[in-house]
Design brief:
The chain has about 180 residues and is of the alpha/beta class. The chain has five helices and ten strands. It is about 30% helix and about 30% strand.
C-alpha cells in the first residue's frame, strides 16, 4: 500500500560523481520514486540546490525527502528518515504473543492491541509514539493492520475510537471490520 502522501524525493548530484552513483543505487533499492537532478548539466537544478543552503554553495550530493534535507548521509541515516517520513514502506508485524500489530519505526513502536473473543479479534487500542504523532502514521498503522487481518483471514471488531474512524472512511474494510457499539 503506497498512498499519495509520499513526499517527493530528490537527489541533487552529478552524473560523473561516484557518491551520486552510490545514492542512486541506495534509492533504487528502496523502489521509491525519486527525481535525479544533475546540478552540473542543468543550471536550474544547480540554482535550486544552492537555494537549500544559506551559503548558496553547490553542496552535492544532497537528498531531499519532502522538506527534509540530507547532505551526504550515511546509509543508516537515509533509511531512518525514509522510515520516519514514509511509514507506508514498513512491514506490519503481527505479534501474536503480545496480541498486537506493530510498525517498527527506527526502534519506536506504533501499535494496535487486540483481544480475542471467540472467532473475533477486538481491536481495543491504537498508539503512535508521542514524538511521531500528527504525521499520518496512525492511519498507515491501522490500514496495514486491516490488510494483515485480511491476509490472515481474521474478522475484527473496532473498539478503539481511532480504529473505528479509519474503518468508516473506506467501504473496503466493511467485510472484515465490524463497529462496536
Amino acid at each position: 500500500m503506497m498512498s499519495n502522501s509520499i513526499p517527493i524525493i530528490k537527489l541533487y548530484g552529478a552524473e560523473g560523481c561516484h557518491k551520486t552513483k552510490y545514492y542512486q543505487l541506495l534509492l533504487d533499492e528502496t523502489e521509491l520514486p525519486y527525481q535525479f537532478l544533475d546540478v552540473e548539466d542543468n543550471k536550474d537544478h544547480a540554482t535550486e540546490l544552492r537555494g537549500l543552503y544559506e551559503n548558496e554553495k553547490l553542496n552535492f550530493p544532497t537528498i531531499t525527502i519532502g522538506s527534509k534535507k540530507l547532505r551526504n548521509p550515511y546509509k543508516e541515516e537515509l533509511h531512518k528518515w525514509l522510515n520516519k517520513l514514509i511509514p507506508e514502506r514498513l512491514p506490519i508485524i503481527h505479534d501474536t504473543d503480545n496480541r498486537r500489530f506493530i510498525l517498527d519505526i527506527n526502534g519506536e513502536l506504533a501499535k494496535v492491541t487486540y483481544q480475542l473473543r471467540g472467532d473475533r479479534m477486538y481491536l481495543i487500542h491504537s498508539e503512535v509514539p508521542f514524538n511521531m504523532r500528527g504525521q499520518g502514521i496512525g492511519k498507515v498503522l491501522v490500514e496495514k493492520t486491516f490488510e494483515k487481518l485480511t491476509e490472515e483471514k481474521f474478522k475484527a471488531v473496532a473498539v478503539c475510537s481511532y480504529v473505528k474512524v479509519v474503518a468508516k472512511r473506506s467501504k473496503k474494510w466493511n467485510t472484515i471490520i465490524e463497529q462496536a457499539n
